[in-house]
Structure formats: structure tokens, C-alpha cells
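The instructor's notes for this session suggest beginning with a concrete chain rather than abstract definitions. Hand out the sequence below and ask the class to guess, before any prediction is shown, which regions might be ordered.
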Amino acid sequence: MARIKPQALLLQSKKKKGPTRISATTIILCNLVVMLLVLSLVATYRHWSQRSTEQTGLSNFEDTSDILTDSKKYDLPGYAVLNTSKGYITVELYKDGSPEIVDKFLDSCQKGYFKGMPFHHVIKHYVIQGGHSQGLGGTEDWTTKVKLRSRLATSPKHEAFMLGTLKTKDSQGFEIFITTAPIPDLSDKLMVFGRVIKGEDVVQEIEEVDTDEHYRPKSPIGIINVTLKSEI
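After discussion, reveal the predicted structure:
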């Protein structure tokens, strides 16, 4: 039997050796790197998830706020019944068209401002005016019959039986105007916030009362109280 040379034995022993072992330090370092990557991914996910939730919550809050505002607006009474010394006048309030004026009117009603309010000026085929002041206010430039006839011939901006108040903010109190005919030029000073839907005959009866030369009723006539209603 031939003897194997030492050199050949060395080569054979090298071939029989198993795979090189990985040191414990290397394994630990690899695990740490993997853990850091996982933690980084989790943190990134949580950040974007939280941001998305906050934006959704803010959007929902804004939507809810808008809904509450609209709900509050539509919960307000939409009608008012004026109990006058000649009968009842029912008016529809323009909550959408004149929200600020309607709010002021409703607030005045709740405070009892209109109880006992007189119609202190009545101009036939024109307007009746109620308030606690004695000035003509928005009708001061149209008090002669000549001016009334000439203005009624023009194209109207306000129809008859419209409910309005003065546009000027320096006026004292809350003046009420109910037109009894189309009033074009009154648009410059009058803010319409409602219309008469029942009781037009009562308005016309008030319009027919006797007045002096300054359009003041000779006998007292006015509003006894006002009742607010959500529906008729």
C-alpha cells in the first residue's frame, strides 16, 4: 500500500474542514441593525398615521361646526305675528337673505321691545312706520303728495307688504316699515328682512286711518305684542 505524503494529508484535512464560524459579536451587531431598521419603520408609520388622523379629525370638526351653524340658523323662528290694535299681521322673516337684521329683530322681540310700539307715521299708498321715535326716518324725503305720485310711476324695487327697517346704524332703536305700495327710492334707506303673508287687510286698514298734515295718526294705533313662530 502506497504511503500518502504529508503534503497530501494537509490538503485533505483542509478540504474536510466545515464552514467558518460567525463570531457572536457579528451576530449581535446584525441583530441590532435589524432592530434599528424595524424601530425606524414603526416610528415612521406611527408618525404618518397620527398626522392623517389629526387631519381627518380637523376636517370632521370643521364639517361639524358648519352643520351646527346651519342647524342653529334654521332653528330660529321663521315667522312673526304682529298683534296690532287693528288685528293680526303675519310676516315671514328672511333668515337667509338678511340674517343680521333678523337676529336683531328676534332679539328685540324676546326683550319685549315691540310691546306697545305705536305706528307713528302712516302715509297712504306708501308706507306705515312703527317705532318709539317720532322722526320720519327713511320717509323724510318723500312726504309730499307730488313726490309720492312721481315716484310710484317708476320701476319698483320693493313690492307692497314688505317688512323692513332703516339701513342707517345711527338710528335709535328698531324702526319697522311695512310698505303698502311699490316704493322704488326707499331701497336707498330701507333694508327688507321679511314680507307680510297674512293680514294684508289689516295693513290696509291701518293705512286708512285719519292722519294730520305730518302723517301722524289722529288716534293711537300700534303693536300690542309680537309672537315668534317656527312654522305657520
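Then share the key points. The CA atoms of residues 31 and 37 lie 10 Å apart. The two ends are 126 Å apart (CA to CA).
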